[in-house]
Amino acid sequence: QVQLQESGPGLVKPSQTLSLTCTVSGGSITTNYYYWSWIRQPPGKGLEWIGYIDYSGSTSYSPSLKSRTSISRDTSKNQFTLHLSSVTPEATGVYYCAKGYQLPDVWGPGTQVTVSS
């Protein structure tokens, strides 16, 4: 059974880069046709899809965040990592990694990230 766990700093200063890693267990991130997404939820708002990296290493990002987002992977560690640059306090929220794209079927527990000086 696939499980995901987010990790990374809970506090980031404005203008810095937010970096979070998702560790996957119970399955390989290179399994054919699997997509691995990052999703966030600002306080009091709905879920926002950030982007994904797929089984081949190809990526896709939300148009509104594309210029500041990159997702990479380390297949030896079965991890994928989100980098979001030039963050503002509006980037504060709970960040989730998930398996899947349009309808993720497995989610990590989420990690709170606060952007503040």
Summarize this structure briefly.
This protein has strands at residues 3-7, 11-12, 18-25, 35-41, 48-54, 59-61, 69-74, 79-84, 93-99, 106-107, 111-115.
Descriptive account of the structure:
This protein has strands spanning 3-7, 11-12, 18-25, 35-41, 48-54, 59-61, 69-74, 79-84, 93-99, 106-107, 111-115. With 117 residues, the protein is mainly β. The protein is globular, with a radius of gyration of 13 Å.
Q: How many runs of DSSP E, i.e. beta strands?
A: 11
H and E string: EEEEEEEEEEE
Radius of gyration: 13 Å
Low-confidence stretches: none
- N-C termini distance: 40 Å
Query: What is the overall shape?
Result: globular
Backbone structural class: mainly beta
Main beta-sheet annotation: 7 strands, mixed
Total number of helical segments? 0
- As a percent range, the share of helical residues equals under 10%
Q: Could you tell me the strand content as a percent range?
A: over 45%
Mean pLDDT: 97
